[in-house]
Amino acid sequence: MTALSDPPKEGFRLGMLIYDSRYRSMTIQVAALVGFIALAIWLVSNTAANLAALDKSLGFGFLMEPAGYDINQTLLEYSSRDTHLRASLLGLLNTLLVAAMGCITATIVGVIIGVLRLSHNWLVARLMTVYVELFRNVPVLLWIVLIMAVSIETLPQPRDFRGDNPAATMKVFDSVAVTNRGLYVPEPLFSRSLGNTHLLGESSLRFDVSNDLIVILIALFGGIYAAHRVRVRADRIQAQTGLRPTTWWQRLGLITGPTIVVLIALGFHLGYPALKGFNFSGGTYMRNSLLALWLALSLYTAAFIAEIVRSGINAISKGQSEAAAALGLRQRRIMSLVILPQAMRVIIPPLISQYLNLTKNSSLAIAVGYMDITGTLGGITLNQTGRELETIMMLMLVYLGISLSISFVMNWYNDRVKLKER
Amino acid sequence: MKRFAFIGALTAATFAAGFASAGTLDDVKAKGFLQCGVATGVVGFATADANGRWDGFDVSVCRAVAAAIFGDGDAVKFTPLSSKNRFTALSSGEVDMLARNTTWTFSRDVELKFNFVGVNYYDGQGFMVPKALGVTSAKDLDGATVCIQTGTTTELNLADFFRKNGISYEPVPIETNNEAIQQYIAGACDAYTTDASGLASARATFENPKDHIILPEIVSKEPLGPLVRHGDDQWMDVVRWTLNALIEAEEYGVTSANLAELAKGTDNPEINRLLGTEGNLGEMLGLSADWAQKAIAVGGNYAEIFERNIGENTPIGLSRGLNAQWTDGGLLYSPPFR
Questions:
Q1: Measured in whole angstroms, how far is the alpha carbon of residue B24 from the centre of its chain?
Q2: Which residue in A131, A162, A246, A254 has a CA-CA distance of 20 to 30 Å to A263?
């Protein structure tokens, strides 16, 4: 900036804006900015003009009108008389559910595959290579549709379970029903339930919180904290005396004890699915659309994560593992104590992208009829109200919001594990 | 992928709509063909054969309109549209008209800014179930899994029907008719619901059509008809009166067989006006005098189109029912050509 305030030795000519390196970068930036603003103005005015030509106006009032359609997988209570806003919220929860399940599974599978790909066992390493190449080179949409189609065509229908000599039977001690409509698994029930806390009254965003769940979580986290204290104490004693007291049974008891006591107090038991009418009732119903989407997204993303993990491990110099081996650590401990913690620094940044990809790919849900937010807000609501522009803008904002939140959390984690340079 | 098609259409809406609505008839004449939105594949209503030639009950309306304008029933290009992206395609100007078993409703007419030019099939929503299920009434479907095509009036009617009767169901939303049929056949849903004509059409494609029954309940009114965008009355008139010409032709006994003879002139002034030997109706529409002749020549009158595509002698086997002429106790009633 000092260059600008200095009085120029020679008079300012217009050509200097381009040929003088003092001004050139500023000229280019101003030109680019003007161009960008002009483009934005043109886009907005053109959209407005064409909306006017179509005799349509922008407005979000439709969100408060009754949706009129039903949603099969509802994490909150919902009926067709609820508003479009609530239908969108339920879609959002379904998106978040499959994204969270997908990210967790993809990470676990990806880390295992990535580590095994470096195995000295020739067969295992090659098998993992086949897995990675197979999954990451076929579009995820095909995997979703394939898993869905296979489950529909090969698994038994609910009515096959009927009769004295049924064509299909329930698995795992008669507790799990595998059908071509999905999986029915036992659900947790409480005979002395504490009920629900209803929040936000009658608004579209109302939701219930299970008091049972809160109590159980308090007991569980309390136990984990107590176990953590025991471990800290053991570390201190070990540091002082060199002898580590045996604490595993204390810690196990502290973690499981309070939770078990709470579960017994609440009268915990399992509700088993049973064939009733057209479908199984009771139990938790995992629709095959959810399963297909979850499996396909996890396995597909796991292939990428495996490569990221492999590159992260390879980035750690061989000297590290040799040094650890020289100290007498076993192979598995070398991996978990020396290699992986360092590899994490390389792994996490690209891992964030994979989580974002998985979340965005979950919008392919409509291919199997899973009612995520693209299916509710961007599908049925859009279609029934004809508000294309509004719904698509809302959808973009929602995905942007989810993605930014994920990267915020992961960046925070990355800051924690990255090499501290002081 | 749907998303991309959709956003593409949206972009097209922002860029193209401005000039597409100038005068659709002139635009169509200038480009030399009609762009018609049809279903992605509903046997009898809109299907493409092995050579890619589209045929069916709805397709015939497109061909008739093309013939009225160009004298050639093949001067038309078809855009197969899912029930979800059909409206965007029409309002963006991607297609000139939609003949895609679309229900005429208030909100589509008023809020979505379309004009329904008439009704070419009076339908109602029904349910199909396998006979083996032992269900005889839709009210027995408590707790059943029901396949529906998403983005249609069907899913709203379905919600209303089950709600009114106080029974529960599990909806399985599906993008296209074909996928829905596949899931239904595999037993992933107990029942398939759509317009009764669509059910009959689907059943005709089954290996054993006799193993499936269509339940007696018709839970809604579904007047299906061709539609165009708001704001171009001349174009709306062209499509509306072409459809009326097909219906009027049946009423006055004008068929593809006797068309050439009647076109020489008859004693009936109504027929003469329809076929353009008297008066100047064609000119008023901005078309040639014999526009209706050409429209009828492509596939015959309404009755011929009906019988050939979905009538009782086809695998679909629909009877005329509500779709008979008003003179036969049906609802088809063309306003007079004068």
A1: 20
A2: A246
